[in-house]
């Protein structure tokens, strides 16, 4: 953390030095965009509503930790104030795009016609083309949507031109846009820096070898042959072959891209392999569904979320001798040895008495894992360079569905002795993926020696650790208090107060859930009412900085208070019964509504692109449906009108996908 702070200070000095050498008109945006909020008086007034006991001067944004609006991480381009404003909206922001709504509309209407026609034929038990009544309904809906959208006036004329400018700069290879790994804001850098960091990562891990041509055709053919051989040998049923075999027309070669880790020194890159349409993706997802439940069943110390972590903490009794440690396994998914990891899965299944899993023998499962690892190929196309093809020879692909469970079981074998020792001593040992949390009463020198010995146990696994009376783990800061822990929300040093901006072109129900979910998360994590009070204030500031109206924030955080305490104020939640109310929220099923499951064989689910002028079109849609289909066979058929959003700034600016020629089989 100290190293990151020094780096940030150095970056500020370099930026100030750069400003001195620039013309005045290029520096004007710095003071207006990068310091404080744009309307400090309004923010101060809003905060005073929640804290009337404090003078307004103390509620000024510069007196709080969250004293700035979200900022894009810019390393490459001097921004004008309008350009900075657009980038500071963040990757989640969806600009209003009525032209895209109209562009998508013919396809959406066609899909609607097909679904409604099919429902009509089923209800009337007829065979034929599109019924005239469906054509009447479709034309009516299309005309109503066009009429509504065409009257929508553009709210920000600068937004579209600025996005076009950024796309042009990226096409000219002058800048590259990415989304940061943790803070989820824009990262702007020179393409040369990305190429240099990519080269550094490749050489450091030594997990990839370059090949000369695209292996996609070979991957499809080898996978199809492998699956057919399993069926021939009666190791797998024919029905499974139909589900797992790859499609020649839809398959794509996985591609590697990077997200910058702005919370770490030097902002290294996190590698991610996108393989959703890989020839191996169906097998990988199947293996994850097969093995993951067994791992969870036999590994009670494995965490799936923060709620389970908090429950473990609540049951543990601390003493004055208790110390906390966390450690992280470096580059876990890339560094695990492939054959040893698969053997660890076979050993895990055998040790727990599984001779077969869903009809598949351990040997068949082993062969399927090995086929995935031995055929782990991808393409990498860096800015301005031709695509390069690679085979991964160590570890599993970051992004493959089965890599996680493969690594989990390999680490499970590695940590087994230490886990047993912790349990015998009555201490905690908890792991979430490659991050471990533990308690100990051993002296500091002794535990460091012990962790150093663990670090030497497997040359493929390297750990880094830190410890004391307070540690940060997952999204929780944990401090030892007797007889229990004190917990509060943890934010990384580089974290920014960024959520979906209020004026993003999203349906309102999505924005309503953001204050509610933030208050729920804070209540679950904060063990003391004073920490919760502080966290609720930070939530309000964050929402205000993202343009949420004060009344809107008050209403939907109040809705959470109502659900927990049956009062719309925070008085009871922050009072003497805080622990009792917190206990309610720690139940995973708390306030989960039982949603009616969609019956895809019967229900009609229709999606249309959202724009602000269509915010209330859902009710109009059902009104038209009722007018046309009343007293017809479709009168009682459930029909659901749903929204999809238009392209976000991330879709418009972050270009990670290689050229079509590099990832597809072309005719």
From TrEMBL:
It comes from the Eukaryota. InterPro entries: HTH_animal (IPR058912), RT_dom (IPR000477). Keywords: Coiled coil. Residues 1-28 form a coiled coil. Residues 240-487 form the Reverse transcriptase domain. This is Reverse transcriptase domain-containing protein. It comes from Rotaria magnacalcarata.
């Amino acid at each position: 953390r100290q190293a990151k702070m020094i780096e940030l200070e150095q970056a500020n000095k370099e930026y100030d030095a750069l400003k001195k050498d620039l013309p005045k008109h290029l520096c004007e945006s710095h003071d207006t965009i990068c310091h404080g909020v744009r309307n400090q008086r309004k923010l101060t007034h809003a905060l005073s509503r929640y804290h009337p006991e404090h003078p307004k001067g103390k509620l000024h944004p510069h007196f709080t930790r969250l004293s700035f609006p979200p900022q894009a991480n810019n390393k490459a381009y001097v921004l004008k104030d309008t350009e900075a404003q657009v980038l500071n909206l963040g990757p989640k922001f969806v600009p209003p795009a009525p032209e895209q709504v109209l562009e998508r509309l013919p396809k959406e209407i066609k899909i609607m016609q097909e679904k409604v026609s099919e429902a009509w034929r089923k209800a009337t038990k007829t065979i034929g083309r599109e019924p005239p009544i469906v054509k009447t309904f479709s034309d009516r809906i299309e005309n109503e949507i066009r009429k509504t959208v065409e009257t929508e006036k553009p709210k920000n004329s600068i937004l579209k031109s600025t996005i076009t400018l950024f796309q042009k700069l990226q096409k000219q290879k002058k800048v590259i846009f990415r989304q940061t790994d943790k803070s989820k804001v824009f990262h702007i850098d020179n393409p040369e820096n990305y190429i240099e960091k990519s080269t550094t990562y490749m050489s450091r891990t030594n997990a990839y070898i370059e090949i000369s041509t695209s292996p996609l055709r070979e991957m499809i053919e080898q996978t199809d042959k492998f699956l057919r051989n399993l069926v021939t040998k009666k190791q797998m049923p024919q029905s499974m072959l139909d589900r797992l075999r790859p499609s020649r027309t839809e398959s794509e070669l996985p591609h590697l891209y990077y997200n910058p880790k702005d919370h770490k020194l030097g902002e290294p890159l996190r590698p991610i392999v996108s393989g959703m349409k890989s020839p191996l993706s169906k097998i990988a997802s199947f293996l994850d569904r097969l093995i993951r439940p067994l791992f969870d069943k036999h590994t009670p110390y494995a965490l799936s979320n923060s709620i389970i972590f908090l429950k473990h903490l609540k049951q543990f009794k601390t003493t004055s001798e208790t110390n906390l440690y966390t450690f992280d396994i470096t580059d876990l998914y890339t560094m695990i040895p492939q054959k040893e990891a698969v053997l660890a899965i076979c050993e895990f299944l055998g040790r727990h008495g599984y001779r077969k899993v869903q009809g598949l023998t351990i040997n068949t499962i082993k062969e399927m894992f090995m086929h995935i690892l031995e055929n782990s190929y991808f393409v990498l196309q860096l800015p301005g360079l031709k695509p390069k093809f690679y085979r991964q020879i160590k570890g599993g692909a970051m992004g493959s569905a089965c890599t996680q469970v493969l690594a989990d079981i390999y680490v499970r074998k590695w940590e087994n002795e230490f886990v047993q020792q912790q349990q015998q001593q009555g201490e905690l040992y908890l792991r979430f993926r490659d991050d471990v949390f533990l308690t100990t009463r051993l002296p500091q020198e002794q535990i460091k020696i012990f962790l150093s010995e663990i670090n030497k146990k497997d040359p493929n696994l390297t750990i880094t650790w830190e410890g004391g009376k307070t540690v940060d783990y997952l999204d929780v800061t944990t401090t030892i208090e007797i007889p229990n822990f004190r917990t509060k929300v943890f934010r990384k040093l580089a974290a920014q107060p960024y959520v979906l901006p209020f004026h993003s072109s999203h349906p309102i129900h999505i924005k309503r859930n953001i204050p509610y979910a933030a208050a729920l998360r804070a209540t679950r994590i904060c063990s003391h009412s004073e920490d919760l009070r502080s966290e609720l204030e930070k939530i309000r500031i964050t929402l205000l900085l993202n343009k949420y109206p004060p009344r809107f924030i008050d209403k939907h955080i109040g809705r959470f208070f109502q659900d927990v305490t049956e009062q719309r104020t925070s008085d009871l939640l922050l009072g003497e019964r805080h622990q009792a109310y917190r206990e309610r929220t720690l139940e995973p099923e708390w306030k989960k509504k039982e949603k009616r499951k969609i019956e895809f064989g019967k229900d009609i689910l229709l999606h249309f692109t959202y724009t602000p002028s269509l915010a209330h079109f859902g009710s109009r849609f059902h009104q038209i449906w009722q007018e046309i289909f009343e007293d017809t066979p479709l009168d009682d058929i459930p029909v659901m009108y749903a929204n999809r959003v238009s392209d976000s700034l991330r879709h418009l600016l972050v270009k990670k996908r290689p050229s079509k020629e590099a990832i597809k089989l072309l005719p």
